[in-house]
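Quick question, first post here. What does this chain look like in 3D?
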Amino acid sequence: MHLSRRALLAGLLGLAAAPAMAQGVGFGLGMQDVVARAGAGPRPLDGFVQPAAAYSFRKLRTAYTGPSIRIIRDSDQAQLDIGFTASGDFDRPAAVTHCTAANCYLVTAYDQSGNGRHATQATPANRPYLQFNCPLNGGVCASSTWASIGLASASVTWAAGLTSLSTVGRRSTGGGLCTFIAKDLNRISSHNTLANNWWVVAFTGGEIIQPATDNAWHIASAIINGVSSVSRIDGVEVTGNVSMDTAAGPVGFVVGDASTTCDAVEGIAWDNYSLTPAERVALENNQRNYWTPYTLDNFVRPAAAYGFRKLLSAYAGPAMRLRRAADSADLIVGFTAAGDFDATAANAHCSTQCWIETWNDQSGNGQNLERFSATGPTYVASCINGMPCARYVGAENSQMATIATPVWATKTSLSAVAIKRVGDGLLIRKGVNTWRTNSAANSWYLSDGGVAWGVAATDNIWHAGIGIIDGAGSVARIDNTELAVTPIPGVTTAERIGVGGGAGADHDISEAIAWDGYALTAAERAALQANQKSFWGTP
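> Answer (accepted):
Ran it through. Tokens below.
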């Protein structure tokens, strides 16, 4: 595995279709609001300008029925086309079977645009390596490890003056140039002399250099349009002046330099089209939620984060400590290599009932939740779409809370993925500021202990909820429905973090996150919920 669970992080911000304009070119785009699962629904390229070429390790267009790449095995030179699973992910098992006990290289990246502009490499020594252990969703990537290694399409006659580019890639070793996506001589790449920098460059004039840490995956896009040129790396945009080469030439992908290693999964280039700011954000959000390692890597670091999945790549600790009710034996449970909760170990230990003794904080702040009641919450192996959760039974008053009492800033963001069964109960709280289930049927509410605002959320169904406690900027959001609420003041005294609890409520929780002194932006709220929806299967 694992484009399985991690690759379910697909989708983002709904975006109206762009006007039908000029053609574009892409190595894996990610433009629309969702990468469909189970073989249905829209793909990233559906409804947008038809690209001149599109290559990816995921399916990009519903209409496309061909394979993803063609690989060659070095042991016997046997070649094989690798396609997609029913859910649109790269068919990793087929590639693994073909490449067992041998190295495999890319011969062709197939064009999913419908234009037949496949990117190929005829010279065996210059073919990118198919890497199976990319630290990017546990998936595969194309890896260039030396000069002249890469793929190129047939020559494209480019319009004058304007192109848009995008990629998901990294320079993992070396100090040379990595060309992740190129329109002839115009590129987004790692700079060949400056460490920890990428650039947008055109040999006919101009460059934009932007910081981007080496040996880390980045999502980058660029507009080459003279004085209106833009470089965007991981959500940060800078401007510059780059003049585009207009000569006919191929689209290049993941080309290395000297002894430098360059890895990539996606890139994009439109001819004679400038991505709008909204399109750049939507594209990046889609790519981030599909490709980047963990949910919170691209967010402001939270005050506390609890989940039945790994939420931050920097976190190296366990998920929780489980106590078996039958004999009080404890087990510390961690995560798989792909970042999923180690359900195999947990289920083997909890052949009978287990309580959650400690729910570890993944933020790095050490705000672990501890069990204070005599029993619950209990560990449930198959809870939300076959995945685990913590079950809080109201009669047990089974709240967990931190021991430390941080002093809170005014702004607060609270997030929970949970199901409410009956009655009132706490989902996550910062002192008296709470994101709760309401005692009224089919509603949740955001509260500061006095002021409360209810939001419709059907009982006995999983929901993803976000609350912003920020005075006049307070917001309640359930399953992509967002309401401005009556101003809710923040509590700035020392108060513990709590999850679960409430004697009148039975509910299940799989994830809870709190930010201190920070209000998630509208784009971040949409991105987080799209991620949660894709992973957990909430409405």
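Confidence is low (pLDDT under 50) at residues 1-41.
The chain has two domains: 23-56+128-291, 304-536.
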